[in-house]
User: Which sequence fits this backbone?
């Protein structure tokens, strides 16, 4: 389903939040509109992009995801999965029993995904019962040890990105979330992408995963593994690319907000 | 320890642990046991994989499977003229050697030299592989003959003629594969199979041709490489051939490559070629279907992610057999095993290559040798060349290529000190030789592309006040010749193939109060200028956008998406709708600067270095012109005007138009080198100053003008309407330089032409001989070429003017004579008989023209062809409809026998044998029966006319997932073949179920039924593969029949998601349901008013159904349902049909469908279109008959005579049966995916009635 809200309104909102000194870092479109988070604020938007609520948060959030109409987030410390109601109130908090800190949350193909900086990959079909795969243990000797930073799913695939033990970018993809393939990071005739990943998103119209991160980098990975593309935007860090119908909102440090 | 070494060590440890099992006395897995064949080991490995693991291995990024010691592996590497990678200091690797690219290699006419080069590349590949950074499977070489020089990848091919391309590729393939009888040094992949000879439309187009051109020209190199060199891999292309995507064609891939020529190995799809089946060619509707089409056709690996995302769902939909997945993986792993990946290092001869092999002194020297031998001397008036360095005081090196190293596409990044430009090379050579020559350098020109200027997606007119209107640029009303629309690898449709002066026009563009104009465009290389004009291409200008790299605009490359460029519009007072023209202009050529001319003027000799680069043409972008790009033609002319001793050195990707300068008196010499590698600068002085004489020959015809060529989309070789023929075979007009042309500093005289026999048959080998004498003053190389013409062939057959059928490059010292003997197997003189579908040989004279080029024929010998080819068996191909079997299962093998004329023997007989009949036996009809665990090789032996050939395949037999014993309530029960047995009881406590597996390797779990009705579940689990088999024991009670004509429903009924407002009992009409939104299809589990009663035994259910109108919306459906849950059911429904491809075709009567959904995955088992069947009263009688796990659907129009529709198999638990009517939802695979803009028509809610529901229960007591 294509979830649509007005990008212009988002930009105005972004400007408003940035003016308050709080950078927009994450956001999600949902069936009925969308959410944007900045610092200790959560903005709920209707399907037309109008701001329904500008909500104070009890504590800052790390990531947002939505499943079956429920809103989920990670606490800033990466210790708990939070379930929020539509007013931004935390209605449930759950420790997921991970060794590492939860770093990212994503939803796709009716499944919630989370990753940790200790190389753990978690999945849940209902937001309550979670299964955990210890990637670093399972792939010891086959793939580098990973500090995962980002996860996204969609189009029949799930992708995780992070830094390996040498501090280099590494990305893995899977169709069902158990068996992982290394994603080639070559682009533009033999160059290899290497930057600090911040967030992953899946763009259904492009059937591509978009990895945002350090150096204002957006690394687009379509189905064709030959066809990666790297773009840089004028920001120290590109926090997120949030697809929205035929457009996408880019959020970056220094107040970067841009549609493409 | 660096990361790479750690990874390697980890993988090695896992493998070593497995390998040490034998030493510990444990059973070694077959896939690691070198006593078995590679194919047997691959089958064993595949049998151990879970379904998700299998899917993860179907792409170029093959996942690691640590539990089996399988490391991750990227099949995709490139090595067209060197390993495509850069230096890796962490691994101790220098940048790899970059040898001359293929167009240059093709001009050496020296397959042995190419073999040496490929062997050196394989050395470097092995050294790189040892560090864990690259695989050993290379998607090289390109063997497509160059049908049209505008093709963007001309430089990657060995040339225009299929014989030359095959011979040069033969050298490459041999060198890469190595000579070990067991192991492959590296794996070559010939591409792009086939007729991928234009770039701009390659994802969507069809290369159309008759079977003669197909066989004689396009497929010839593949045939030769597979048959002669046992080529282990090919790449299927993006394009279709005759409207069938090559990557979805079992005929092209399986029938031709495997069954006709006998290819053993794997087929990889080009990157996104599988996606193109769905999204480019619209050949199938879904990505699951594309997956099935590719795998069934024989594409074993998808460079992309379609297979890796959709193979499981295709399998679950029932459109992709597991055997096709397994076969593909066996092909992949067999080749990986042939590289020695799974064998102990001491067994593999190629595991000792140190990093120092990369960019070694020996390889640098070989690159330098090759760079010299590619050169073709095109003009040498008055023996202007070689230059005498001793007589020169000053030499001017002019042009954009003078101090540049152009490596061409698919090159690695060699070390900086290995890349020698002509300027650096000449200075170095002169210095080393002690000559005091003043070398002046002046670029003087540029190489900027002046075609494929821009990709245009849209333009936008902004009015005063800010309102704007966007126009889709691809929806033009008129355009200049040559404009196309395409998206290439991207999503966005764009106007493309824009040349200088091209235009597109748009009617009814409202220019009232225009303020700004924005054009959404991408700059693929250098860019161009967009003029926005009104009324015509020369109309009033209202805007001009400088979209050029030179002006600082962003260059997106050939894969780029559009970016907006906005300018203020010139307000000329236009009101209302106008016709707006976007007129495209190439950037102005830079003028030739005076300093350059001064350098030329003052020099004793001016050498102008010109050429093309990767911006001129490349993958995804063909040339629109054959002119030298940039201002290079003007540069040559300007230099020639001031220096009477001008030499032109050209580095181009192939033919360029030279008529503009080759006849100039001042242009005394022209030397062409292709992109001759990292050492090109070392070669130039050796050639120019006569240390070596140029000895190469053109590998393609150099046409006088692009206007001499048919349209690039025309794949016919023979003269077609309004166009001339193609290549040396059929092009009969004057050319600038013919195929095979090339001069030397010396002269060669040909004499004593001989042929071994004047009478030949297709079964002979004829030897053509000639004495070649070097009569000049230099030692030199000559390429003796043999062309064959068939003047007695009937004119109507349009045989080629001539075909290259033999050549040899020889080095002859001055004054000496060499006898050159060229053997030609007469079997290779075939033509394709389109009627008989086999090779044929024209009787009569065969003239063997011996010469120095295709037009410089020095002598002719002839022989008379008679007789026929002795047909003999050439290829036996055997395959089986399963690779992995369980004990007790069987599979059918099949085979084919292809003769040496490429026809199939119609009724061959085979003798089948198994090398391990205790594991898998095979009967005389090729039925393979699995008897015990292990692997076996089944061999098919065919004898025709006394000649016997054989082929074989491996089969892995897995543990049996069957039961050794089953008791229900203490009584032994034989479930037969069914996965479900049913009991009809009176209720109460359910009997206890006990089960025992046939094999100790299988775990058994029994979940008892709590009561009756209820279901006990017996699960058999193979822990090795995760495969499981469930058997259910259903305990049911008797149900009720209900006419639905009473005032209330029978008490046995219950509703799922009842909506009381949407159902009623309407007397004689029965139960009337008005369908609500939703369905129970896949994830859409929201349908209301499903009326059910328990039916957990076997039964037959009947009902009369009346639709008040035919289902019209795409997913509306109503009928009978056997229901366990929203995710597990069998539905027999009347549903709408919708023509997504032709929505205007109008409504149809709908269809009956038998659908099964298990665990949320739905598949369609049978469908029947009801056009002309269902009456106007829209009444159908439906019957569903359950027997164990089998559900058979019947329909009737009168309630008396029933027709069987189909049978579904599903293992449902706690089954209920009843009726359903719902609006449905489009299948998930169709949601969110725009396909051709099809609009779904609005339709009224579906309203149906059911009556005379009858249920007859059966079951064990």
Assistant:
């Amino acid at each position: 389903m294509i979830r649509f809200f007005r990008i212009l309104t988002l930009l105005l909102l972004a400007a408003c939040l940035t003016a308050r000194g709080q950078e927009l870092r994450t956001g999600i479109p949902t069936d009925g509109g969308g959410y944007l988070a900045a610092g200790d604020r959560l903005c709920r938007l209707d399907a037309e992009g109008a701001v329904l609520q500008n909500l104070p948060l009890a504590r800052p959030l790390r990531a947002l995801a939505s499943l079956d109409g429920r809103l989920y987030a990670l606490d800033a410390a990466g210790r708990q999965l939070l379930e929020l109601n539509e007013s931004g109130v935390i209605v449930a908090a759950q420790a997921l029993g991970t060794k590492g800190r939860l770093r990212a949350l994503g939803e796709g193909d009716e499944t919630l995904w989370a990753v940790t900086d200790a190389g753990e990959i978690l999945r849940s079909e209902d937001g309550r019962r979670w299964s955990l795969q210890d990637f670093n243990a399972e792939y010891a000797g086959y793939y580098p040890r990973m500090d995962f930073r980002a996860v996204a799913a969609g189009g029949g695939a799930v992708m995780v990105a992070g830094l390996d033990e040498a501090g280099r970018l590494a990305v893995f993809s899977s169709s069902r979330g158990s068996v992982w393939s290394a994603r080639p990071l070559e682009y533009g005739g033999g160059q290899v992408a290497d930057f600090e990943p911040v967030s992953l998103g899946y763009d259904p119209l492009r059937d591509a995963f978009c990895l945002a991160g350090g150096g204002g980098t957006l690394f687009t990975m379509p189905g064709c593994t030959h066809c990666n593309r790297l773009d840089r935007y004028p920001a120290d860090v590109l926090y997120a690319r949030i697809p929205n119908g035929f457009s996408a909102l880019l959020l970056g440090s220094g107040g970067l907000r841009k549609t493409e | 320890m660096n990361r790479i070494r750690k990874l390697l060590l980890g993988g090695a440890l896992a493998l070593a642990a497995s390998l040490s099992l034998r030493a510990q006395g444990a059973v070694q897995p077959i896939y690691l046991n070198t006593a078995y064949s590679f194919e047997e080991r691959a089958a064993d490995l595949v049998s151990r994989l879970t379904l998700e693991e299998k899917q993860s291995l179907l792409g170029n990024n093959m996942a690691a499977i640590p539990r089996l010691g399988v490391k991750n592996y990227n099949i995709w590497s490139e090595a067209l003229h060197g390993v495509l990678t850069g230096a890796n200091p962490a691994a101790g690797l220098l940048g790899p050697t970059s040898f001359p690219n293929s167009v240059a290699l093709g001009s050496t006419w020296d397959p042995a030299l190419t073999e040496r080069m490929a062997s050196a590349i394989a050395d470097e590949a092995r050294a790189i592989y040892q560090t864990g950074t690259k695989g050993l499977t290379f998607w090289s070489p390109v063997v497509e003959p160059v049908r049209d020089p505008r093709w963007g990848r001309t430089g990657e091919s060995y040339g225009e003629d299929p014989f030359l391309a095959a011979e040069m590729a033969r050298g490459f393939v041999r060198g890469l594969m190595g000579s070990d009888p067991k192991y492959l040094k590296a794996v070559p992949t010939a591409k792009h199979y086939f007729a991928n000879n234009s770039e701009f439309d390659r994802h969507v187009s069809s290369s159309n041709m008759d079977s003669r051109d197909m066989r004689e020209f396009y497929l010839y190199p593949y045939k030769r490489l597979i048959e002669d060199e046992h080529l282990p891999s090919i790449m299927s292309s993006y394009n279709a051939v005759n409207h069938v995507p090559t990557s979805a064609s079992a005929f092209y891939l399986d029938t031709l490559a495997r069954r006709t020529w006998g290819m053993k190995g794997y087929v990889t799809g080009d990157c996104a070629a599988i996606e193109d089946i769905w999204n480019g060619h619209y050949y199938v509707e879904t990505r699951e279907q594309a997956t099935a089409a590719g795998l069934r056709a024989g594409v074993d690996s998808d460079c992309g992610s379609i297979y890796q995302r959709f193979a499981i769902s295709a399998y679950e939909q029932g459109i992709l057999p597991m055997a096709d997945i397994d076969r593909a993986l066996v092909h992949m792993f067999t080749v990986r095993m042939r590289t020695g990946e799974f064998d102990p290092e001491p067994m593999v001869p190629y595991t000792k290559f140190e990093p120092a092999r990369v960019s070694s002194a020996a390889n640098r020297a070989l690159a330098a040798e090759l760079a010299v031998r590619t050169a073709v001397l095109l003009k040498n008036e008055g023996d202007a060349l070689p230059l005498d360095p001793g007589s020169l005081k000053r030499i001017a090196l002019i042009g954009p290529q003078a101090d540049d190293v152009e490596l061409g596409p698919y090159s690695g990044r060699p070390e900086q000190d290995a890349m020698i430009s002509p300027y650096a090379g000449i200075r170095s050579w002169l210095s080393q030789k002690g000559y005091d020559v003043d070398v002046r350098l002046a670029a003087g020109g540029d190489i900027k592309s002046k075609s494929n200027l821009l990709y245009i997606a849209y333009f936008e007119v902004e009015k005063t006040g800010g309102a704007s209107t966007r126009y889709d640029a691809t929806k033009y009303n008129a355009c200049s010749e040559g404009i196309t629309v395409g998206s290439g690898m991207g999503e966005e449709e764009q106007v493309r193939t824009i040349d200088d002066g091209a235009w597109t026009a748009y009617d009814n563009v409202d220019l009232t109060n225009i303020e700004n104009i924005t054009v959404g465009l991408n700059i693929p290389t250098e860019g161009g200028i967009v003029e926005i004009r009104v009324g015509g291409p020369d109309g009033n200008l209202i805007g001009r956008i400088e979209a050029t790299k030179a002006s600082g605009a962003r260059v997106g490359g050939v894969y780029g998406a559009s970016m907006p460029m906005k300018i203020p519009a010139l307000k000329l007072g236009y009101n209302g709708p106008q016709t707006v023209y976007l007129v495209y202009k190439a950037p102005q050529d830079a003028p030739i600067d005076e300093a350059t001319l001064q350098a030329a003027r003052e020099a004793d000799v001016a050498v102008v270095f010109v050429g093309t680069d990767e911006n001129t043409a490349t993958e995804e972008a063909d040339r629109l012109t054959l002119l030298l790009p940039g201002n290079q033609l003007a540069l040559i002319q300007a230099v020639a005007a001031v220096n009477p001793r001008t030499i032109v050195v050209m580095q181009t990707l192939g033919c360029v138009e030279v008529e503009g300068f080759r006849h100039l008196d001042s242009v005394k010499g022209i030397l062409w080198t292709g992109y001759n590698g990292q050492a090109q600068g070392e070669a130039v002085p050796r050639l120019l100053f006569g240390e070596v004489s140029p000895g190469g020959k053109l590998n393609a015809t150099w046409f006088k003008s692009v206007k001499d060529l048919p349209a690039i989309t025309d794949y016919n070789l023979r003269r077609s309407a309004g166009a001339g023929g193609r290549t040396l075979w059929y092009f009969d007009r004057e050319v600038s330089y013919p195929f095979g042309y090339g001069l030397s500093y010396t002269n060669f005289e040909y004499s004593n032409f001989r042929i071994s026999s004047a009478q030949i048959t297709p079964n002979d080998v004829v030897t053509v001989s000639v004495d070649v004498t070097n009569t000049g003053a230099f030692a030199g190389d000559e390429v003796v070429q043999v062309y064959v013409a068939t003047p007695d062939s009937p004119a109507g057959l349009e045989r080629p003017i001539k075909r290259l059928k033999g050549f040899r490059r020889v080095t002859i010292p001055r004054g000496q004579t060499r006898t050159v003997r060229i053997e030609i197997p007469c079997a290779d003189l075939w033509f394709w008989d389109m009627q008989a579908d086999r090779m044929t040989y024209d009787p009569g004279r065969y003239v063997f023209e011996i010469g120095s080029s295709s037009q410089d024929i020095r002598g002719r010998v002839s022989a008379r062809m008679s007789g026929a080819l002795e047909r003999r068996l050439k290829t036996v191909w055997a395959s089986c409809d399963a690779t992995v079997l369980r004990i007790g299962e069987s599979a059918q093998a099949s085979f084919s026998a292809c003769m040496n004329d490429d026809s199939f023997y119609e009724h061959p007989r085979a003798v089948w044998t198994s090398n391990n009949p205790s594991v898998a036996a095979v009967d005389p009809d090729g039925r393979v029966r699995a008897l015990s665990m292990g692997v076996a090789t089944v061999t098919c032996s065919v004898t025709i006319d006394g000649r016997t050939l054989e082929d074989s395949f491996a089969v892995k037999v897995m543990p049996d997932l069957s039961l050794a014993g089953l008791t229900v309530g203490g009584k032994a029960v034989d479930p037969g073949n069914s996965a479900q047995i049913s009991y009809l009881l009176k209720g109460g406590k359910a009997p206890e179920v006990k089960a025992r597996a046939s094999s100790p390797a299988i775990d058994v779990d029994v979940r008892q039924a709590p009561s009756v009705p209820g279901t006990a579940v017996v699960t058999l689990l193979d822990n090795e593969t995760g495969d499981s088999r469930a058997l259910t024991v259903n305990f049911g009670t008797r149900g009720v029949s209900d006419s639905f004509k009473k005032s209330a429903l029978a008490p046995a009924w219950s509703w799922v998601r009842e909506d009381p407002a949407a159902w009623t009992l309407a007397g004689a009409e029965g139960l009337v349901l008005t369908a609500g939104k939703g369905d129970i299809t896949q994830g859409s589990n929201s349908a209301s008013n499903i009326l059910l009663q328990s039916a957990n035994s076997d039964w037959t259910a009947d009902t009369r159904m009346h639709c008040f109108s035919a289902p019209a919306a795409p997913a509306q459906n109503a009928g009978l349902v056997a229901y366990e849950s929203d995710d597990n059911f069998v539905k027999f429904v009347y549903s709408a049909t919708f023509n997504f491809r032709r929505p205007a075709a109008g409504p149809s009567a709908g269809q009956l469908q038998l659908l099964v959904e298990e665990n949320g995955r739905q598949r369609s088992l049978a469908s029947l279109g009801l056009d002309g069947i269902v009456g106007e009263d829209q009444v159908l009688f439906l019957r569903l008959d359950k027997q164990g796990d089998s559900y058979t659907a019947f329909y009737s129009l009168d309630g008396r005579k029933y027709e069987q529709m189909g049978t579904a198999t599903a293992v449902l638990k706690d089954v209920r049966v009843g009726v359903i009517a719902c609006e449905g939802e489009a299948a998930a695979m169709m949601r969110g995916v725009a396909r051709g803009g099809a609009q779904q028509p609005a339709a009224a809610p579906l309203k149906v009635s059911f009556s005379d529901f009858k249920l007859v229960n059966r079951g064990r007591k």
Notes: Chain A is about 5% helix and 50% strand.
